Amino acid sequence: MATVLLVRHGETTWNRSGRVQGWAPTPLTERGHEQAAALGAHLASTVDVDRLVSSDLRRAQETARYVARETESELTTDAAWRERDFGFLQGFSPAEVFEQYPEYALSVSGAAAATARPDSGETLVEVRDRVLDGWERLRVDLTSDETVVVVAHGGPNRLLLGSLLGYDVVGSVLDIDQHNCAINEIYASDPRVVRRNDTRYLPDGLAVGSETVA
Questions:
Q1: Backbone torsions φ then ψ of 152, nearest 5 degrees
Q2: What is the enclosing helix (H) or strand (E) of 198?
Q3: What does the pLDDT read at residue 152?
Q4: Do 151 and 64 contact (CB within 8 A), yes or no?
Q5: According to the model, what pLDDT value does residue 208 have?
């Protein structure tokens, strides 16, 4: 069965400081590099990777290079898997967005926030459409027994998983967890999520946040 292993990138400097990253070229922290190395080693020892795709943003590519090295896979990039472009909100903390710009906060404004576009940025609906388009292009190109690793971001991962699980945009973002280097397993031919937010493979001290394995 064609399988997609959808992964979030390792911890970055802005993850650690609690800032909205968007398209910023933020690097991995030392912990992020260790997480990515553990990810690559885990995948190399548990699956045969036929293809490796990454968001073209720095933090995703830095993570994916460990997978490429360990699994001897060629890395290709696809901008469809980029994080949301937050426009002028990039660099703010979530608390600052909540307090100063509640119209963009899903927990405050609900569905209206999903269609609110920050200056020079994207709406969440636009991001979902972009990600779903990338997903469909990937899915129809898969052979029946291919395994593909996609290294992306928290936002795109939540939106794709939510779409497959029947969540709306608000529920996808607020109710689905995605920790750094978490693995989500999706059967692609008849799309079904069989594992999500799995960080159990990470050594002690590298897994951040609680686990929610389907």
A1: -135, -140
A2: strand 192-198
A3: 99
A4: yes
A5: 80
- Locus of tokens 């990937």: 138
Pseudo-torsion of CA 134, 139, 140, 144, nearest 10°? 160
End-to-end CA gap in the chain: 19
pLDDT value, residue 156: 98
pTM comes to: 0.96
State residue 50's pLDDT score.
Answer: 98
Closest CA to 138 of 151, 126, 154: 151
Model confidence over 163-188: pLDDT tens digits?
A: 999 999 999 999 999 999 999 999 99
- The ranges of the chain with pLDDT < 50 are none
- Cα 124 to Cα 144: distance, rounded to the nearest angstrom: 32
61 sits in which H/E element: helix 58-71
Q: How far apart are CA 40 and CA 35, in angstroms?
A: 9
Buried b (16+ CB within 10 A) or exposed e, 90-127: bebeeeebeeebeebbbeebeeebbebebeebbbbeeb
Which residues are identified as catalytic?
9, 83
